[in-house]
Recover the amino acids of this structure.
């Protein structure tokens, strides 16, 4: 059965009715109620690529199944299904393991998004840094913007906020630019993008935590001074604002943007399969609009990708982009180019591997988590139209990377982890970044 836009809307409405969600329910109750009773299974497909593709295609046709696909190895598939769809999943004939009894329960455990209490500037005093309590909770889009504005106000001579462009639905794609004693735009650039996949909530606050550390440490930490005095930072915590808002208001597990295409069965394009480089490599993305890795109709045809390409091209022309990271969750991975080919060797790969090994060791020394590192294709699987491949080939950046943050798997929560993970995630990734800049 084709899952059409109208049937999707009807299914969501019916599910809300069944779970007791009402128009007056809190945002948390709406998000959680949609998945009350949903069970998460891990399907074992081994090393059979054809089997993986066939099972994924079958899941895409199940109205009440949600793929929890992330950039993990292709030996298994994590999927959430409603109780009445378990039999349909079992009929696929794949070995299954139950790893979560109730996804709605875990979404509730994330808690309500708490209001961000903005810092107040006193007359004739410098604006204070944002309060660290910001990292005690997840936040809606507007509060991410407010945090960046407050961070900039606390560092007025060495920073500015910027809007790289607009999303499909007209929302700002907002970031912060930080620099050191050389002055604005005088050094090579580091560019960090987060939350291209909307449901990966841990990424934005982790990236913001590192921005906070760069600013707060500038006058008191030799490491932070050295980093900002060597590189300009352009940091966009949420590059897919439409999808991100949708995860707060409607569907906590939404991944793609919110693009509606004429003749398409489903909404949304995976912006990280839409980059105009090696876009149509067979097996690296999907031509099915209902797939979580749907690549779009043409390379670079999402509004969000156009904004990101323009931003990177402009920064590269003016300063050069030396280090790029596309921040994701989950799986605990450090991914180097290439994703589109398992035989192509990226320039400087041996040195990249050395640096990535140091980053992984620093992360492990912080909170004990193991991060696997290596070229995307050989470490996980083939991808096409990805960001770091584009940065490698088009910009020629020295370090064009992607990260998959905590946790390791869906059994540990996957995309839905409590906010008490935010600070530990920030600590471990920041430790990895400090090691990188120290040894690079």
């Amino acid at each position: 059965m084709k899952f059409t836009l109208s049937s999707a809307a009807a299914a969501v409405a019916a599910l809300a009715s069944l779970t007791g969600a009402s128009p007056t329910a809190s945002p948390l109750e709406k998000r959680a109620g949609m998945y009350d009773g949903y069970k998460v299974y891990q399907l074992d497909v081994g090393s059979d690529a054809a089997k993986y593709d066939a099972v994924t295609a079958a899941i895409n046709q199940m109205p009440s199944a949600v793929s929890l696909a992330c950039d993990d190895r292709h030996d298994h598939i994590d999927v959430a299904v409603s109780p009445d769809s378990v039999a349909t999943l079992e009929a696929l004939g794949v070995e299954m393991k139950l790893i979560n009894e109730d996804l709605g329960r875990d979404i509730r455990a994330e808690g309500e998004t708490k209001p961000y209490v903005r810092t107040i500037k006193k007359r004739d005093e410098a604006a204070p840094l944002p309060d660290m309590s910001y990292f005690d909770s997840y936040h809606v889009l507007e509060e991410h913007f407010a945090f960046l504005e407050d961070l900039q106000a606390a560092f007025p001579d060495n920073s500015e906020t910027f809007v790289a462009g607009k999303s499909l639905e007209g929302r700002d794609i907002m970031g912060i630019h930080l620099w050191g004693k050389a002055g604005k735009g005088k050094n090579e650039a580091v560019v960090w993008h987060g939350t291209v996949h909307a449901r990966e909530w841990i990424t934005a606050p982790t990236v913001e935590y590192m921005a906070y550390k760069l600013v707060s440490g500038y006058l008191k930490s030799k490491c932070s001074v050295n980093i900002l005095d060597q590189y300009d930072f352009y940091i966009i915590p949420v590059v897919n604002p439409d999808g991100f808002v949708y995860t707060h208001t409607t569907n906590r597990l939404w991944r793609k943007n919110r693009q509606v295409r004429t003749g398409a069965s489903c909404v949304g394009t995976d912006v990280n399969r839409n980059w105009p480089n090696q876009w149509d490599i067979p097996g690296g993305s999907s031509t099915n609009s209902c797939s979580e890795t749907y690549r779009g109709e043409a390379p670079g045809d999402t509004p969000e990708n156009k904004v990101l390409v323009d931003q990177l091209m402009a920064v590269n022309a003016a300063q050069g982009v030396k280090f790029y990271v596309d921040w994701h969750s989950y799986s605990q991975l450090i991914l180097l180019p290439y994703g589109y080919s398992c035989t192509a060797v990226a320039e400087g790969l041996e040195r990249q591997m050395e640096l990535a090994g140091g980053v992984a060791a620093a992360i492990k020394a912080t909170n004990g988590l193991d991060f696997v590192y290596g070229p995307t294709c050989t470490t996980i699987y083939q991808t096409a139209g990805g960001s770091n491949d584009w940065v490698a080939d088009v910009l020629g950046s020295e370090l064009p990377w992607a990260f998959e943050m905590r946790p390791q798997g869906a059994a540990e929560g996957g995309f839905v982890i409590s906010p008490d993970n935010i600070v530990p995630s920030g600590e471990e990734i920041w430790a990895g970044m400090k090691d990188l800049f120290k040894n690079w």
About this structure: The first helix runs from residue 5 to 18. The longest strand covers residues 321-329.
